[in-house]
Structures are given as C-alpha cells and as structure tokens.
Task: structure prediction
Amino acid sequence: MLKGKNVLLGISASIAAYKSASICRLLVKEGANVKVLMTPDSVNFITPLTLATLSKNPVYNQYFDPKSGEWSNHVELAKWADFFLLAPATANTLAKMANGICDNLLLATYFSMESKVYFAPAMDLDMHKHPVNIENIKKLQSFGNILIPAESGELASGLVGEGRMAEVEHIMEFIQTTDSFWFEKKVLITAGPTYEAIDPVRFIGNHSSGKMGVSLANDAIKRGADVTFIHGPIQVELPNGSTNIAVTSANEMFLACKEIQKDAEIIIMSAAVADYTPENTADKKIKKSELSLKVDLKPTRDILKFFGDNKLGNQYLVGFALETDNELENAKSKLTRKNLDLIVLNSLSEKGAGFKFDTNKVTLINRCNKIWSFELKSKQEVAEDILSVIKENLSR
Result:
C-alpha cells in the first residue's frame, strides 16, 4: 500500500519524537518517499541529521534558509504529499491546527493540505484528558483529519495512563489498514443491554456485555470511519476514537439514535435492546413482602424497525438476531419485516458464542438472500468479517 507513496512526516516537540525515527525508517522500508517537517522546538528532541539520513531527503523546519534565502515552499510540499502523518502531535500543535494558528512551516503546510492527514497525539495524562484538548481533537476529526488514538502506559512524567503516542507498529498498521471505502464514512453503532427500571433499585435487563459492538466500533475506527457509538450499561473498555454516548433505557437509546440517524450512512444495531419495559416505574424502592410482586410490562419502541421504516437516502441498515430455534428462518423473517440490508445471526446453541464470550459464531444474510457462514472466531475477527461483507455489498 505504501510503495511509491509520497509521505510528509510531521514531528512536533514531544519526548515521543524519538519514535519518529523508527516510523521514518519503516515508511522508507515499505517503499514510501518520505520528507520530514519539524516544528522549531522539536529539533531539541531529535536531530534533523538523523531524520535526513533515514528519509534520504533534506529536513524542513524553517520557512527559509537565512544564509541563502532559499524558500521552503509549503504549498509545493502539501501538493507533493499523498498524505501527512503528524507523529508525535503535541497539545500545542493540535490546538494551533484546530484554531487556525499558523506560526511555523509545519502548520503552514498542514493548512495547505488537500490529501489525508493523520495525527498521533502524545502528551501527559492530564493534558490528554483536558476538555480543551478533547475538544480540539474532535474539531480536527470534524475537519476530516484521522486520529490515531493515544495508548495507555507509563508516561514521561512517571504517571501511568492514556496519552502515550501509539506504538510505531500500531501507527504503521493503522495507516496501512485505513480503507478508502470506510474513510470518513459516518457509522452509527449500538451496543450492550438496556436497563428498564422497576424502581430506583431494580431493573429488567439482559446479559449483553457490549463486546461485539465495541469490536465493531474499533475495527470501523481503524478503517478510517467516523464512528458514533451509543451504548447501554457495559463494563468493557469503550472504543477510543469514536464519539461515545452512554444511555440506560430503551427509550434513551431510541432518542439518542434518532438524533444521530439523520447523518449516518451505515447503521449497525448490535445492542440487545429490551423488548419490554415496566408500565409504571415506582419512585421509591418497592418493599419486599411475602406476597408476589406483579409488574405489568409494555413493549418498548422497536428502534430497528423504526430505522427500517424511515431510511434516509442510501442508508445501509444492519440488524442482529439472537435465536435458539428455527434460526435461519427467523433471521430471514426479521430481515424482511424490519427492512434491513443485512442481518447477523447469532446462535445461543453454539458453544462459545453469544453473550459475555470473547468469541462468536455468526451467519450473515443480505436482502438478496445471499448467506455468509463463518466458524467460531474472536469477536474482533467477527467484526472484521461483518465490515468486510458490508463493504462487499455496498461496493457492487
């Protein structure tokens, strides 16, 4: 994928700049043509000589050479590049990119870019989680820039947490797996259970862990999609790089999904939404007595059917079916009744599949009645299969 590509490698002033030498070396090894751009302060962390040697090109860090007057043409650099990779991306440089501040050659080149821009944040824990930094990252993503999420680990300050620049091999994998089909596609994914309150203490719920939905979101992010992840109460780690929205009840999930639906191109409804909710919810805890407790239930809003009945434009809708008998027939019926484009059939009868497991075994059926059957795999591999089938269906 990288052979013959022209890559601008941007480096800002972070201790993580030492990793940029390895990124440069691997890009060249993969056959890319690399030119390096540095912020003025980044030369304190790694020398231009090192990067010029590895890239086999001069390194750019000033608008012009004060001795010769030779100009570094930022517009030419931007037009030359197939993509721009900023690694490391400091809070300072991200803030300038997000807010139109152009005070060095790297930033001038960034603002001239028409091709893809990737950025890999590197900063301390508290800086990374600061609301302004979070807002700047979201703003850059809204401009079409692609986030390579920071990872958790030991930081230069001695703290341990999120903010560490992604490892070199992860950055390389991310760039090479970004898929032009998925790039910037707006994808809505739901996951986890919903809890339907009986009183302030008790609820009706199910055993969904949200693992399948998180795996789908992670793979879509890796492919370059713009993911909104709406989830019920789950205990698994949330995807990094998506817009995450927490809800509790089926009605809250419906309202959140309805708000996002208008912008979504692909909707993947993997959440296990409760089919019923109590007719009335007690304001105070219901006291235990010797008598049985009767709870009247009413159907919840069928979110999947609502989306099927109210598709916008060329929206592609994916539903899930968890069956215990007549599995294929029931899944096909649901596909038709709810106007889906693809259904993912899970079976509770398969050992190692279903709720809470790290593995799953699925069968996919599209609206043309084509069937894809897969063996038991990790949920991450299942997610990759599902997204590959979606791409196959939409690329015809």
User: Anything to note?
Assistant: The chain is about 30% helix and 25% strand.
